[in-house]
């Protein structure tokens, strides 16, 4: 997110808080609300929310929240800014009028309790007495999981219209921060799609494309990297401005099991969170389940299905912010269409629910029958209300424990090792290190920067190095983002036959390993002259004048953004192939005469342009290739969406290629390189609906309208073969490598094909790799580094008479492959190839067995993709 946008967001939020602080304005609105009762949702929308075949659209919901704001003094609407596609992203604040009048004071109290360093216990008790519990709930992050967004207007209406003791207690004791749609763009897409096909044979089918422009279903995996603007808004609310005591993210799950999952999580959990936070999740979850049963709602399960070790999405990262981060998951209908389920179709078989039978955490199984969106709305509303109710009834306990969690985590960080993590100024890619520091600041992590050189644990660090102390309230978060991590290998993670049980998503989310940044754990106290960071680190590049050529470093990811900006300005460049004259292979060169353009690019990217006394002899003219990237239907391909985002972040122009254009052939006339994102061969060709990674599609191809049935077919395969034969470059990411091996008849084998998980398993882990930095495809990479192994491939090249046509760009070392995560059977991939270039006719097929750009997070391997997009 650009700094200007962040400043605008801060300004809008402060303006909203200032408005809330106006007591006369609050009283005037309150008087108006007493004159006329708030508008009921049924009256405003014209139907009961959650009723069959009805979905309220986001634009109308925005109007409704603003209507409630006008009609009552208990609700404020804050427009955080535009979503990815330009729709309003709302924060709805609901609390008593007197709380709205002093909202900024309550925010400050909350901030002090979440970081109480320097406070006496008597000060804390005074803050607890004055403060209010803060609860955040987010709705329908996954846009096809529509129950939350449809439930939210009713929840808001109940809170501002009811006058009973329970409601009064909630409003007086809780500041409720509601995000009524985490994905407004997807909410509009899903609503419009459903309405278009309602009443036809395709009613209730999933979207053919991603329901977020870039991320699809992966948007909740973005909490720790905050690549998209919606994540940035929610991170600002939860990790910087408010730090609530409780957070609930409302989701849907499959249709044929329990009706709703509520907290706590099943085993295993990530250690290093404060124990109180796990107890709180059980506490809230028990209250939610109790209230569901009290309301006569069956099919409620807790402590099952979803493990406490998940991806670092919003509800799984929050425990390490000392927030009781929770999840509800309701059984899905067919969007707003009812689904009939026979009793014998209901099943268990998941963590903590081996059979669909009554048990202590599932005492009241749902018997089957019609399942409707309204059933989801009712269960989610009870869960949302119960969370607020428990916080309200136990306000002082909740606030006191916020203090205790922060205090104890800080003490643990001070007592344990490492004492700190140092991010040295000297980095392979220093600008990516700065980017990582700024991402940590988004999380509210405390970071210091050295004003002078210092020594720690026998190492000397330069001015500008960063120190992240462990003795801070977010110590657990720091440990997982900056510390080596091992997924548990025990009876919680193995089946009875010894087969690994798949983690929920990945085995690790170690930020620094993903980004290729050096971080040193230090086990002793550090004495250094430092300044605490209070804002993003800004780095403006420099232009050193007076040489025969300007060089910028090919080892920096930002250099590719600089290269694209210069190419857009018509500036000619060369690329270094042989070290010499102060340049390394992969560095970029610009001749004198474009200094004004260089200065502008340096300011925008942070890239330095060094002056060389002589132009290196071993260099070639740089060509930016014309890029096409395949996009399919069947729910879309999340890896394709993330790849688009990465290309746009770094300024690569590209064209989206759909089936028809590929099948038509003649691709060399428009493209030099074509990317097939991670996908299965069957999804690429359209041979079956199975396999691949989508964003919401379910069922067979026949369940979607004919115009959205995807696949390039035999004609497309032949067109791609012709494209490469005539000199094109085909880049295959992750699973798409199998398409290249099969359809181009390459003498390459994925050695993991058919290997059972008991013999090899590596679920989203960082592993070591060796890169051939003399190969243009690996220019700028370190000789040895890390890659993310996640449903990845490892290659073996069969002997032929043309072995010279195959280059191994990256390979796995002989032993000790795992850095973080979980790896079973490393010998299966030891010394095997991870990335291969195969000559084919006049062109080449590039097999990258892993996702170099996974979720726009793996900055450490971005260059392996970027290098394939230039010559």
User: What shape does the CA trace take?
Assistant: globular
The CATH architecture term of the largest domain is 3-Layer(aba) Sandwich
Strand content: 15-25%
Main pleated-sheet profile: 10 strands, mixed
Low-confidence stretches: 1-35, 689-698
CATH homology superfamily name of the largest domain? Zn peptidases
Percentage of residues assigned to helices:
25-40%
Q: Give the C-alpha Rg.
A: 28 Å
Mean pLDDT: 94
The domain tally reads 3
Total of DSSP H or I helical runs spanning 4+ residues = 26
CATH fold name of the largest domain: Aminopeptidase
Q: Look at the structure and give the CATH class of the largest domain.
A: Alpha Beta
Determine the N-to-C terminus distance. Answer: 30 Å
Which structural class should the secondary elements be placed in?
alpha+beta
* DSSP summary, beta strand count: 36
What key attributes describe this structure?
alpha+beta, eight-stranded mixed beta sheet, 26 helices, Rossmann fold, 3 domains
Question: Gist?
Answer:
The protein has 871 residues and is of the alpha+beta class.
Task: Please tell me about this protein's structure.
With 871 residues, this protein is an alpha+beta fold. The protein folds into 3 domains: 3-410, Zn peptidases (Aminopeptidase), CATH 3.40.630.10; 549-621; 627-869, Class I glutamine amidotransferase (GATase) domain (Rossmann fold, 3-Layer(aba) Sandwich), CATH 3.40.50.880. It is 33% helix and 19% strand. It is built from 26 helices and 36 strands. Strands 25, 26, 27, 28, 30, 31, 33, 34, 35 and 36 form a 10-stranded mixed β-sheet that branches. Helix 6 (103-114) runs antiparallel to helix 7, helix 7 runs antiparallel to helix 15 and helix 9 crosses helix 14. It is globular and about 80 Å long. The chain starts with a helix and ends in a 5-residue tail after the last helix. Mean pLDDT is 94; it is low at 1-35 and 689-698.
